[in-house]
Amino acid sequence: MKLKTLFFITAAVLLSHAGFAQDAPIESLAGRGKTKIRVGGFGAPTIKFTTFDDQLGVLMGGYAGVMLNSRMMLGAGAYALVNNIKAPSINAADPTLYWNMWYTGFVPEYTINSNKLFHVAVGALIGGGGVMKNERFKAGDESENFDNSGFFVGEPHANFEMNITSYLRLAIGGSYRFVSGSNTAGITDSKLSGPAAHFTIKAGRF
Hints:
Elements: H1 3-15, E1 27-28, E2 31-32, E3 39-52, E4 55-68, E5 72-81, E6 98-112, E7 118-134, E8 145-165, E9 168-180, H2 189-192, E10 194-205
Antiparallel strand pairs: 1-2, 3-4, 3-10, 4-5, 5-6, 6-7, 7-8, 8-9, 9-10
């Protein structure tokens, strides 16, 4: 499926529900919260376990935004690769280089039955990022980046969530990262793309 088609399908599904209001109180382990929170917002630090260059990659980051009618969130997110994955060497005398990747973008998210103790949220990140190589743990000065290139990224996701309190949620879920347009030597768009499993903590007014 082309990325442009994926974007329009995701946007249509999310925005088709944006006008609904929520009348029921939020159910949580701590009891029932207030009703009809029309405008709120939350932050969601996230850790992702994904494939990167056919190896296990760990991404750290998250997203945050404004939540409308306890259903539709509009915000932004960012993630970066945090574990060491070696980049291929061309010559034996070359220094050891590691992959570095980051991406950021606009994040819409729609929550189904947000007031229920257990519920589902679906969304996507649409934006861009970069991939490069660097020499980490370099003594005496900062590491230097090599072979930088940018790319477009689209990453739909789904969460299974539980309300701990009316302002705190835990979520587990999955996503798929579609990358297009990179040209750094030694890696391809298909190796930058891949599925991810994630764990998220959401805190704010829902």
